[in-house]
Amino acid sequence: xxxxxxxxxxxxxxxxxxxxxxxxxxxxxxxxxxxPGYRLIFDKASEDGSVKANIEESNNPMDSVWGIxxxxxxxxxxxxxxxxxxxxxxxxxxxxVEIDGNMETIHxxxxxxxxxxxxxxxxxxxxxxxxxGAIQNQFPKHYVSKLKALDSENDMxxxxxxxxxxxxxxxxxxxx
Length: 176
Prior knowledge:
Layout: E1 5-10, H1 17-23, E2 28-36, E3 38-45, E4 51-57, E5 64-73, H2 77-83, E6 91-99, E7 102-110, H3 124-136, H4 141-148, H5 158-171
Antiparallel strand pairs: 1-5, 2-5, 3-4, 6-7
Helix pairs in contact: 3-4, 3-5
């Protein structure tokens, strides 16, 4: 019996394999993927007071968002939904992507309701997870440089900050 798989396009902190694998046991890397005509923004209001990553259509073919297609056992989808606050900020959208010669339905989490958006800065540890994931997955240098140029703020919750910095330490990726 084959297990039902769920494909997800990760573009935020789940780019870093150490982050997503800590959450989802069955997760597997499938492919790098680039979406032209979209841009990465940080405007998803988080319960911790910061903002998290989001993508939006830009109508500019020069814009693009790099990410990773992961697959996981469908039975673990609810865990990812919980981490992504599905229904309380992020919504799922799907699209078709060719993977190994087959068209697959890929899902991603986006925010498109203004009540879940805010102007702000990501916490430094969160932005570093995104940058580390981009480096780990060998995204183009110009994309990584753009991430490194973003402004962030320090998380005053020391326990949360240290917990997330441990994930970065596990990845052993230098962010300079």
